[in-house]
Amino acid sequence: MKKQFEEELQKTLYIHTPLPLHKENSLEAEFAGKKVTAKKCVWDGTAQGYEPVAQNEGRISIEQTEDGRVIRLKANMTADHWPAGAPADGDYTNYGSGAFSFFPGEENWEGYNRIHFQVFPRIKTGRAQHLNVGVRNEGVVKVPDRYNREGANVFDLVNREWNECIWEFAAMGRDKVAELLFYVFLSGQAVSRDDELVYDFRDIWLEQVEEPELEKGWECRKNTISLSTAGYFPEGKKTAVANLEETTFQVCAAMDHRVVLEKELETVKNERGVFQVLDFSELTQEGIYYLRAGAVRSPEFTIAQDLGEEAVWKLLNFVYCLRCGTPVPGKHQACHLDTLAEHNGVKLSFAGGWHDAGDVSQQAAQTGEMVHALFEAAEKYRHKPLLRARLLEEAEWGLDFVLRTRFGDGYRATSAGATRFTDGLMGTFDDVAVRVFDHSYENFLFSGIEAYACYALRDTDRELGEASLDAAKEDFDFAVTKFAQTGVDPAHMYEHTYNSGLSQYYAVIIWAASNLYLASKEERYANTAAKYADKLIACQEKGEAGLGFEGFFYRDESHQSIVHFNHQSREQQFMQALVLLCSVIENHENKPSWEEAIRRYAGYQKAILSNSAPYGMLPAGVFRIDEPEDKALFPYLHVAVDYEEAFPHYKEQLRAGKKLDEMHVLRNFPVWFSFKGNSAILLAGGIAGALAGKYLQDEEMLQIGREQLYWMWGKNPFGQSLQYGVGSRYGSQYGVLVGECTGEVPVGIETYEDEDIPYWPQNNNATFKEVWIGVACRMMWLLAAYADVHNE
Prior knowledge:
Layout: H1 3-11, E1 36-43, E2 53-56, E3 59-65, E4 68-76, E5 97-102, E6 114-122, E7 129-137, E8 152-157, E9 163-168, E10 177-185, E11 196-209, E12 224-226, E13 239-243, E14 248-253, E15 259-264, E16 266-270, E17 273-279, E18 287-293, E19 296-297, E20 301-303, H2 307-321, E21 339-343, E22 346-349, E23 362-363, H3 364-380, H4 385-404, E24 412-416, E25 432-433, E26 435-437, H5 440-456, H6 462-486, H7 502-520, H8 523-537, H9 572-584, H10 591-609, E27 621-624, H11 634-637, H12 643-655, E28 658-659, E29 664-667, H13 679-696, H14 699-712, H15 773-789
Parallel strand pairs: 21-25
Antiparallel strand pairs: 1-11, 2-5, 3-4, 4-11, 5-10, 6-9, 6-11, 7-8, 7-10, 12-13, 13-17, 14-15, 14-18, 16-17, 18-19, 18-20, 21-22, 23-24, 24-26, 27-29, 28-29
Helix pairs in contact: 2-15, 3-4, 3-5, 3-15, 5-6, 5-7, 6-7, 7-8, 7-9, 8-9, 9-10, 9-13, 10-13, 13-14, 13-15
């Protein structure tokens, strides 16, 4: 790790206070230096521009201050009622928004590609401050879109100082702009009773810049090089993708600019475009380098055996910042203590674990999976005692929540929608009600997590581990009984396991039983795992589809519906289950069959990977063209979307995929509608690839896993690291109520409408740019896999 980062870690007491943000290396740091070729005043305190109009719960005035004339927005952070149209119980509801608008009269703003202004927020006890800006366009392309994803941008602000804000929107429809809206979500205050916000605005301008950021397509910007800005492992292929006119490139040492390698560029032409590939795989010497081709120079990057360690620390920082129910310095005081679950007349507080995302909601399954990822990372990082100790500490924080939110009869508190901070007083207006279920999938999942916790704590906290194992055995038995009664539980849109099919149940049963066997050595768990392995393999494609490859999974033994995920994914679970089973049960007559299933899956990933070349992003997978006809399955895959409205778009998205035969297409991105972003998709696939690669000792599979990390760190068409604070050119993300956090990761790169082309607009909005613990969990799992592989 870099010396500067090690010093920062020490200052945070190894992240017991958040790491600094290093905005100087962010994408937004480049915006101020872009050449402006045209400007138009929206409001500057003079007679030119437009008049602001207060909206919603906002109150505005024009004030003369020592900083000049400003628009002053005031609003109260709390209220004694919910806004009009909100659910009566306040589920997933805040107190509205303090807002004001300008109404340009359907002007054409196509001559401008960004808005630039300054804002000074003042909230007496505020920590994480935000501001939203939105555009309403009534032209050819309506903005916002039907799912309210386009045309809005959130800024993370520093309290009590002027913040320079720039929002690029080159790809957004703006031929008839009817409204420009500035608004702040009124989301309460944790503990504090001083709830007034005051925001001052000045110098609001439209601008045209020469080189806005690329927002759509496979080819990167002219005269740029896209690479993993965090770096590369010494092992495996090391490539970058460029859009250049040069024929050769150099790898240079950052310290003295010495040329350490010079090679020819390779030009690749395919259906996605024309690309230059810079292959420097033969360079394995650890160090800091940059690429150069003519006058074009890449960001610096590292080659290091411990490349993942700094990223793990920064993921830990993000996870720590998402803690619920405890003070997080610079973020919030103890929060959501009055988030209550009730079952059979008994109540418990749902505070604890980690918030699910920037909206400070809570999903028990997401916290549980992160507990496992942290424990597994601690196991793989035994050669790094300090990091291991901190991973164990954070894992135990989450384990406390997992064990404490059980009611002891198969029911547990599962999720709560918040989007607000509460007053901490139980019985008042703003209490959040928690959903309670006894779904078998969740109990199987938690039993595996609890059992692995026992194994991971075997030499640090045996007593806690034994208590966790007792809970694991109980939860497994509850799940077995419920699964026998009901099979696959009905989809519930607020539970993040809603899309699990029967094969997913088989996988989680194998994984849970294998972890129980690992921790307890009781044969009944080995027998159960072996039994369900046969059922899972019966759900695997074995060549009957006639595609020339096999290995993917169907939702059940009928092979009618292929397993798909959209913005979230548990694709890794199939390999987690089979690889763990093969590892803990050394001698079983069916083990060759289990291993063959792993090989088939490996062959599947190898067969589809080239569809995103020259990038290494794993495609979303194979789809049947008759899938849109399955109305009964639709709500399991696509929540909060009307089937009839989505039907023609579903068919269009399949037409946009690569035709494999008359019945199948291959898509790089999922079929999706409202909830978009593929970070979890590709990371879950990367975990599966890494696990299969390690078990089979297959370097090609190990490289597939590495490539998913490289995509996340900047080897993507936009040349941006998707992990804030790791590498460079990382963009601001939708953290909202938790604020920007070093190490945060977003839901991910999306597509526009029904296309199958990468789309990464500069508007910072949910879901695609929302920070999400589900993505952090999968990245932690994947990094842990390589900590083990690269240190054997």
